[in-house]
Amino acid sequence: MGSIRHTQVEEALAHLAGEFFARESNVKALITVTRAEVAPHFKTATIYFSVLPVSSEGVALKFAKRSRTDFRNFIKTK
Length: 78
What we know:
The protein is built from three helices and two strands, in the order αββαα. The protein is of the alpha+beta class. A hairpin with a 6-residue loop joins β1 (30-38) and β2 (45-52). It is globular, with a radius of gyration of 13 Å.
């Protein structure tokens, strides 16, 4: 079980990821961030999201992978 701080960081990161996808995505699909997992050392994170329609999943995943650096910079400004 994680600490309260760890949980807060995961929730904040998931919220910011949702904001980032809403602002930056030009994919013609609904991308919903479902959760974020942060490693115990706080150095890596995994963002989970769902995509509708499912046929746009590949395009959304490519966008997410391509935008990792932009997302990191977005997080730094918040």
